[in-house]
Amino acid sequence: MTDKERELHELAYAEVKKHKETVDADPYRQAFHIMPPVGLVNDPNGFVQWNGTYHMFYQWNPFAPNHSHKFWGHVTSDDLVNWKEQPIAIAPSDWFDKNGCYSGSGIDVDGKLTLMYTGNVKDEDGNRESYQCLAVSEDGVHFEKLGPVVDQLPEGYTAHFRDPKVWKENGRYYFVIGAQTEDLTGRVLLYSSDDMKNWELHGPIAGSNVGTLREFGYMWECPDVFRLDGTDVLVVSPQGLEAEGLRFHNVYQAGYFLGNLDLDKASFEHGEFDELDRGFEFYAPQTTVDESGRRILVGWMGVPDQEEEYQPTVEKGWIHCLTVPRVLTVEDGLLKQRPVAELSKLRGEATHAVVSLQDEMQELVPSKARAQELLLTDLEQAEWEIDVFGAATISYDKATNLLSFERPNGKTGDAERRQVKVDRLSELRVFIDRSSLELFVNDGEYVLTGRIFPGESESGLRVRGESVNEFAVTAWDFE
Ligand code: FRU
C-alpha cells in the first residue's frame, strides 16, 4: 500500500468510527440490503462470484452522505443474502484516479481477482480526464493498483467516458464503456484485448444515432452486455430521456435492449429500450453470471440528482442502499427478473390469510415486522389498496389495469406515484425492508422499487377494496 492509500484508508475508517453509532441507531437502517457503513453508496461495482464467494463492490463516499468522494467499498457473501464487510478495495489515491475511483467491473484473470474501473481526474478548472485502470488481488481482499490501461479518449468523444464492464469470450477479453460524443449524445463503445492490457477500440455498438436508434439521451452510463437464453442483452443507464406516458419518470433511467450482438463487426441490432424497474429509485445496475450459471442483477436503489438531499437518513450520516439480487431470464422475448431463491433463507414462519375486502381499512397480516416478504395472489378481479406502514400505498385499479406505488414526495410531502399497466395481474411478491419496498409483479414481469420512510409509531399493513373480492396473502417475517 502506498502512503497516500494508507492515509485515505485511515481517514475513511476514522469517519466510520465517528458516525457508526448514530448511523446504526437509525431505524431506517435496512435489515437485508447492502448499505454503506456510513456515508453514501451508489453504483454496484465489480460484482462477481470468485472461487465460490460472491464479491460486491460499490461506489462509496465514506466522508459524507453526498457524492464528493468515491472509493470502492467491498462486501462478500456465500449466499447473496448475508454479506460480510471487507476492507476498502480501492481509494482515490493516485494521479489517475484522484477525483474518484469510478464504476467498473470484476473478472478472474489467471486466478487473480481483477478490477477494471474508471479513474476520474479533474483539474482546477473542472476539466475532466478519464483513465481506465486495473487493480488486482490474489486473496480477493487486498488490491494492488496497476494504473491505466486505456489513457486516451477516442476521437470525437468527451471525457464523460466511464464504467468499463469486462468479460471474456472465446479466449479474448472485451469491455463495453459508457460514452458521450462531442455533440452530446450517449453511446456504448466496445473494446477488446488478448491480455487485459493492450486494448483495441472497435467502435460504438449502440447509442444515439447508432444503427436504427435516433437521439436517445446525452450520456449513457454503466453499460453491461451478456448473452442470455439465446438473446444478447445490453443493460445501460441513459441520461436525458423525456417522460413518455407511464415511462421514464425518474431523473435518469436504467433499462435494456434485447438483440443480436456481432463482436467482429461491433454491431448490435436491437429492439426498443425498456426500463428494468418502474419504481422511484433504481439506477446503474450491474450483472454477473455465477457458478451455477445464473445471470444475477443488482441495482443501486437511488438515482443521481433525484432529491437525494431530502432523504431523512442524510441527517443521520448515511444514504442509499443496493437492491436485492434478481435472477434474469429471457422468456418469449421478454426479460424477466425474479428475486434470488436464497432470499427465502430470511423467512420465519409463514402466515396465511384469505382476506375479504371491505371499504374500510383492515389488517392485512397480523405481523408488525418492518422487514418481511408478502406473496399476494387471487388479485386479478379486485380493486384494492394496501397501506404499508402509513408510508406508501400499493393499489390496483381494475378499470384501467394500473398498478400504482404511491408515497409522499421527500421534498414537498405531496403524493407522487409510479404506475405500470398490468393486464392480467396474478401475483405480487413484495419485499419490505425498514426503508424500502420492492414489488415483483407476475413472477418477474415488472419490478417497482422505492425507498419508504415510515413514522416510528406507524405499524402494520392494512388493506381495503371492493367487497365482492377476497384475496390470498402469505407473509413471512424477516426479523
Ligand atoms: C452512475 C455514475 C457512473 C460513475 C459513478 C460515479 O451513477 O455516475 O457513471 O462511474 O456513478 O460515482
Automatic annotation (TrEMBL):
Pathway: Glycan biosynthesis; sucrose metabolism. Its main location: cytoplasm. It comes from Paenalkalicoccus suaedae. One of its GO terms (biological process) is sucrose metabolic process. Enables the bacterium to metabolize sucrose as a sole carbon source. It catalyses: Hydrolysis of terminal non-reducing beta-D-fructofuranoside residues in beta-D-fructofuranosides. This is Sucrose-6-phosphate hydrolase. Residues 33-339 form the Glycosyl hydrolase family 32 N-terminal domain. GO terms for cellular component: cytoplasm. The keyword DNA-binding does not apply. Its EC number is 3.2.1.26. Residues 392-466 form the Glycosyl hydrolase family 32 C-terminal domain. It holds the Pfam family Glyco_hydro_32N.
